[in-house]
Q: What sequence folds into this?
């Protein structure tokens, strides 16, 4: 599509400039006369934007040409450009790119062979300014040639029969376009204020995009005679010329006819008012040039006829109209009937507005009660196409979405206090329960939903010690009382004369140790040693020497009970001169073969004994 190609070219140009280093942009050049302006443009570097500022008003005697590779930004600086009386053409012919700013004026009214201001073969951007021409010159302020691109953001364009004549791609975002030519007053110099034509069949079809602005015309306001056009907003009206104040020579606010090729036009908004004729004229098999097909789609806008019978004319052979929006009135502001062109999914109401036929696309939404957290809704009907809500199935009573909402009820909470668990019973954490929805929460603000099981604190179970729970005092049914026992050293034998004592081990805890008893009598602590593991008692040899020979009982007494065993004390062993040992002995020692000498356990010389005797 041509638009995409032109946009791609423009984007590439913008990116090229943006990526250039600052030194690569030509400096701002000031000019004070026509010769200096022409020289500055000629000397501008190719492919680089050059800003040229007018320092004073000037007069042109011939057209200034913007070369194919030139990128000129002309700052009018509030100055005025005029042309000489014998000037022919337009002040600027653009083969490259020209951007005009600075709220200046180009005035060619003094010359009937000056056809306007701009003849564009490349790219033209007009940011603001005033552009005036002669109605007798038969031209247009802007002529946008095939395969060219034009953007207008603001400004005033008047005087010439046509303000903008498009054969390429034109986009208008604002401005006032005022054409007062009248075919009755001048049969050779008239035209619609804005026109779009396809004269060069070897080029792409024209495209016109009008986003906002004001268009005034006598002969007609906006005309699309070929290609494609869109109107999004703006004011379009026809008025009387100075010589015919009753507006009998005024034509249509919007003219869509295939005079130079098939045409398709979409209207999304805007106000269209005709002084004396139809507001919209579609297709022309009478005097419509090539008499090609014309298709119009009205999606919105306000249309007021200058007639008392119809607001729109559609050629039965060449015109095709489809209406899905807008409002339509006759010259007395009564409703103009356009129902025959209204799309089957739409209808015209009593106010003249085109509305969607909601009944065909209504979705019934039954009432739904709210929950604690989710809103509910009353019963309603919804039109998916229009995004509208109705209280009834016939779509007679419109409501808003908010009207259907039933607010959430909110939770009705009951608090359960924290309860500690016991040995046998479960407890619970603090929580809140909603009586309505049955949900549980860990906080009163209901920010944290939980399960009831999450609140349970398990029973701790008994902590038994010595057969009794240390928490609640319950008895341990499986408890078997601890009975200390001697687990090492039972029934031992110690022979007098031994250097080492006797060791006994009780399985009672060392911490529970109380005392040691031998033969039921407490043993002095000096006569034994006790150490951990479980309880280890070592009777000292010195103590054991004091015990009589024979069997004795031993008790290790602990807080948890008494561990008892027996042990035997044997007499000391006796060694004879021959090296024989006679053991056990009773405690007395006697030399071998002497039956009269007591056995004291001592060995003496016979002479000593004889002396004593």
A:
């Amino acid at each position: 599509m041509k638009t995409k190609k032109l946009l791609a070219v423009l984007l590439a140009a913008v990116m090229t400039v943006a990526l250039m280093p600052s030194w690569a942009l030509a400096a701002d050049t000031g000019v004070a006369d026509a010769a200096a302006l022409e020289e500055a443009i000629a000397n501008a570097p190719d492919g680089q934007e050059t800003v040229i500022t007018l320092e004073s008003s000037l007069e042109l005697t011939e057209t200034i040409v913007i070369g194919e590779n030139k990128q000129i930004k002309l700052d009018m600086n509030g100055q005025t450009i005029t042309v000489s009386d014998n000037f022919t053409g337009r002040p600027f012919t653009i083969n490259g790119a020209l951007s005009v700013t600075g709220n200046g004026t180009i005035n060619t009214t003094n010359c009937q062979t000056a056809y306007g201001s701009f003849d564009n073969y490349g790219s033209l951007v007009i940011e603001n300014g005033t552009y005036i021409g002669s109605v007798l010159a038969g031209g247009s302020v802007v002529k946008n040639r095939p395969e060219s691109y034009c953007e207008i953001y603001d400004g005033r364009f008047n005087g010439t029969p046509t303000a903008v004549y498009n054969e390429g791609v034109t986009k208008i975002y604002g401005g006032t376009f005022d054409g007062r030519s009248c075919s009755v007053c001048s049969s050779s110099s008239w035209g619609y204020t804005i026109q779009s034509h396809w004269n060069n069949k070897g080029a792409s079809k024209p495209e016109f995009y009008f986003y906002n602005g004001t268009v005034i015309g006598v002969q007609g306001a906006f005309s699309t005679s070929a290609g494609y056009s869109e109107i999004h907003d703006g004011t379009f009206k026809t008025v009387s010329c100075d010589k015919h104040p009753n507006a009998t020579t005024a034509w249509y606010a919007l003219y869509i006819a295939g005079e130079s090729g098939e045409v398709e036009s979409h209207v999304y908004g805007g106000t269209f008012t005709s002084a004396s004729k139809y507001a919209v004229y579609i297709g022309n098999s009478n005097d419509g040039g090539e008499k090609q097909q014309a298709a119009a789609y009205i999606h919105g806008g306000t249309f007021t006829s200058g007639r008392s019978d119809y607001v729109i004319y559609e050629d039965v052979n060449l015109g095709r109209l489809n209406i899905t929006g807008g409002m339509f009135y006759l010259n007395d502001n009564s409703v103009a009937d356009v129902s025959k062109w209204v799309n089957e999914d739409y209808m015209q109401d009593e106010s003249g507005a085109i509305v969607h036929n909601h009944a065909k696309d209504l979705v019934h939404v039954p009432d739904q009660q709210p929950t604690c957290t989710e809103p509910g809704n009353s019963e309603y009907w919804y039109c998916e196409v229009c995004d509208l809500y109705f209280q009834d199935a016939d779509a007679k009573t419109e409501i808003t979405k908010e009207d259907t909402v039933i607010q959430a009820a909110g939770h009705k909470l009951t608090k359960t206090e924290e309860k500690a668990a016991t040995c046998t019973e479960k407890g619970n954490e603090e929580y809140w329960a909603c009586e309505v929805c049955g949900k549980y929460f860990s906080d009163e603000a209901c920010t944290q939903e939980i399960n009831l099981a999450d609140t349970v604190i398990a029973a701790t179970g008994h902590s038994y010690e010595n057969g009794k729970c240390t928490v609640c005092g319950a008895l341990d049914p499986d408890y078997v009382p601890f009975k200390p026992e001697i687990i090492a050293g039972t029934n031992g034998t110690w022979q007098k004369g031994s250097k080492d004592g006797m060791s006994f081990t009780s399985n009672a805890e060392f911490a529970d140790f109380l005392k040691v008893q031998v033969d039921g009598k407490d043993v002095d602590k000096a006569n034994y040693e006790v150490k951990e593991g479980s309880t280890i008692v070592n009777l000292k040899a010195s103590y054991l020497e004091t015990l009589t020979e024979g069997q004795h009982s031993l008790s290790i007494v602990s807080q948890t009970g008494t561990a008892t065993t027996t042990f035997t004390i044997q007499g000391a062993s006796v060694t004879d001169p021959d090296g024989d040992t006679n053991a056990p002995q009773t405690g007395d020692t006697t030399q071998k073969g002497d039956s009269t000498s007591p056995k004291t356990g001592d060995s003496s010389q016979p002479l000593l004994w004889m002396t004593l005797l």
